[in-house]
Amino acid sequence: MTFKLALAGLALVLGSGVALADADCPAAPKDKWLSEADMKKKVADLGYTHDVFKVSGNCYEIYGKNKDGKEVEVYFNPVDGSIVKEEIEDGDHKHKH
Question: Exposed, middle or buried: residue 32 (CB in 10 Å: 0-12, 13-18, 19+)?
């Protein structure tokens, strides 16, 4: 039983490390980050709508739609709000930008 729990814990740690490696946001103290309200405004100003808005590692991340209505997953630098990584759904394919 302990071995199974250790394997499950290892899989969780390794899995989350892989997910966080997808977007390379700089490590910065939270007091330097834009507030969630300011970041959500910036996201809207850039033409995105979001179904999910969350902190992912050192990034703000959204799942939503771009101004063209396409499904997106976007990672933002939390300090300046710049786009670090964007994936756009196009039918059955994802395009990274």
Answer: exposed
